[in-house]
Specification:
Blueprint (H helix, E strand, L loop, with lengths): L1 H37 L5 H12 L2 H11 L3 H26 L1 H21 L10 H18 L19 H39 L51 E6 L6 E4 H5 L4 E8 L10 E10 H7 L13 E6 L4 E5 H4 L6 E6 L2 E2 L9 E3 L13 E7 L22 E6 L9 E10 L5 E8 L5 E2 L1 E2 L9 E9 L2 E11 L21 E7 L1
Parallel strand pairs: 1-10
Antiparallel strand pairs: 1-2, 3-4, 4-7, 5-6, 5-10, 7-8, 7-9, 11-12, 12-16, 13-14, 13-17, 15-16, 17-18
Length: 526
């Protein structure tokens, strides 16, 4: 009899777990449908994920980027879904005996999702709560109905004629719920895709004008013919992406607007994309670097950018840099997803090629990299300069406002540090004895690279050969012919920038203003 009772509990738990999973599936599917009708970015997984990112300590975010790279957001989403599955199973088992309590638990998560949606910086109002609320209601109803069929099998207890358990009833309820949820999810994906198709079409039909100021010709010899070295120009598909957007914004170029306003702005302006494209554009080769780039890390890339000089727009709006009596010392750039970045006004107006970019390597910006318009400033780490999907520029002061990353203990000002990286040989490689070409890249935007040196083990520093330099705003390749001898060897590199300053040996973390230290790799020569 005890065996029968245990089996009965197991059956109840299994049916309850299935009911909980179906309820969670229903909730997410209905939420996706409503989000597709209201605003795709208001979907519960997206808003809860965004809320988690917002409240995650900077050190943890930095760890996620180091560990998972550009897959950090995928890992977060999978983690959220895994937690939802566990909670759904628990609520489903609870609902077999306490249907109202289980359903109330589903509704509670809807409230959490709605609160997360309304707390997001890109929230457009109470409508953003609808996907989470509608999904939770649908999930609660599904759990209540399906769990009602998950009662014990009378035959197992010798109580035929009581309990009225119906296997067909449970399977019917579960099947109808699954079909309905699947249909809702499919409709949601359709509506979400329909909203994005206008943005995709606007990018596809966009024809970029030629630059009024073309990029200087790239000197012969900037690209060394060394297998394994990073290309001078990074293809768009390979360019690093580091941001907090769980869903890449799809902005329609035809409806996009940029507003310039704030302290010291005597003539506020709002621009359409066509108005920006009608202005004189400049084309420049510029290397971007992420502050989360560890010593020797991959979060750096070089591209040919096309855009509008930002200083021109600011001057036309009446903005003056602090050195000329301007009231604002910080420019706050806002993205369509609510991200805020703060840049020093003095740097933006000191003559460097700070731009609002519309093109990347000869084509409109990819969505991943900020279409239709992004900001970039040579010499500053991306978190204080490279706002993607930009829609608002506000002039203010550093004392008056802390942007997103500054609130999370990153530095207010972040000039890029001098760095060098070994691309080949790779760590733990086993090159043959004899001449081995050690090669890589070095960068010090706004200062340029004048010297790169290599050290083998604890030997003396030896000068590497430098490739041609395209400009002070781009990285520079280098190579060194090493006579490799058998054994294990540590290869270390350091660079000297255009001011004569040698890259520091002091090893620091990426937080608060970028990593420093010499890059080294260990190899074994058989």
């Amino acid at each position: 009899m005890q065996h029968v009772s245990s089996f009965r509990r197991l059956v109840r738990a299994g049916l309850g777990a299935l009911a909980g999973l179906l309820a969670a599936f229903t909730a997410l599917a209905v939420a996706e449908l409503v989000a597709g009708l209201v605003r795709p970015a208001a979907g519960p997984v997206t808003v809860v994920g965004g809320a988690v990112i917002d409240r995650t300590p900077a050190a943890v975010k930095d760890f996620a980027i180091r560990t998972f790279g550009e897959n950090d957001k995928t890992v977060l989403q999978l983690g959220i879904l895994a937690i939802l599955v566990l909670i759904a199973v628990g609520l489903g088992i609870l609902a077999v005996s306490h249907r109202r309590t289980g359903a109330a638990g589903v509704l509670l998560f809807g409230i959490v999702g709605a609160a997360a949606a309304l707390s997001r910086p890109d929230s457009t109002g109470t409508g953003d709560a609808l996907p989470s609320i509608a999904g939770a209601v649908a999930g609660a109803v599904a759990l209540y109905v399906v769990a009602a069929r998950a009662v014990p099998v009378p035959a197992l207890e010798g109580q035929a004629g009581t309990g009225a358990w119906s296997r067909r009833g449970f399977l019917t309820a579960a099947g109808v719920t699954a079909v309905a949820a699947t249909s809702a999810g499919a409709l949601g994906r359709y509506f979400t895709g329909r909203q994005g198709r206008g943005a995709v079409a606007s990018r596809h039909t966009l024809v970029l004008p030629g630059p009024a100021s073309p990029a200087p010709a790239v000197p012969a010899g900037v690209q060394l013919k060394v297998p394994g070295i990073t290309a001078f120009t990074t293809p768009n598909s390979d360019f690093y992406r580091v941001d907090i957007a769980l869903t890449v914004p799809k902005v329609d170029a035809g409806t996009w607007r940029l507003r310039i306003h704030g302290e010291g702005v005597t003539r506020p302006r709002t621009f359409t994309l066509d108005q920006l494209l009608a202005r004189p554009l400049i084309e420049r080769d510029i290397t971007l670097t992420c502050v989360s780039n560890e010593v020797g890390g991959p979060y750096i890339g070089n591209a040919r950018w096309l855009g509008v000089p930002l200083a021109d727009l600011l001057q036309e709006a009446g903005v003056r840099p602090p050195s000329q009596g301007g009231r604002a010392d910080q420019l706050v750039a806002r993205s369509v997803d609510g991200m805020t970045l703060g840049s020093p006004v003095e740097d933006l107006m000191d003559g460097r090629d700070a731009i609002l970019a519309v093109g990347m390597n000869g084509e409109p910006l990819p969505f991943d990299h900020g279409f239709p318009v992004r900001m970039l400033v040579p010499g500053l780490y991306g978190y204080v300069s490279a706002c993607k999907w930009i829609e608002d520029i506000e002039l203010t002061t550093f004392d008056a406002y802390d942007p997103y990353w500054v609130k999370r203990k990153w530095a207010r000002r972040a000039p890029i540090k001098t760095q060098a990286r070994i691309d080949t040989p790779r760590p733990f490689a086993r090159p043959a004895a004899g001449i081995v070409t050690v090669a890589g890249v070095a960068w010090a935007q706004r200062r340029g690279i004048t010297r790169v040196q290599i050290r083998v083990d604890d030997g003396p520093w030896q000068d590497a050969d430098l490739a041609a330099q395209a400009g002070v705003d781009t990285w520079r390749q280098w190579s060194y012919r090493w006579n490799a001898t058998p054994g294990g060897h540590n290869l270390t590199v350091r660079a000297t920038d255009g001011t004569g300053r040698v890259q520091t040996e002091e090893r620091t973390r990426t937080i608060p203003d970028g990593a420093s230290g010499w890059h080294s790799v260990f190899v074994t020569v058989p």
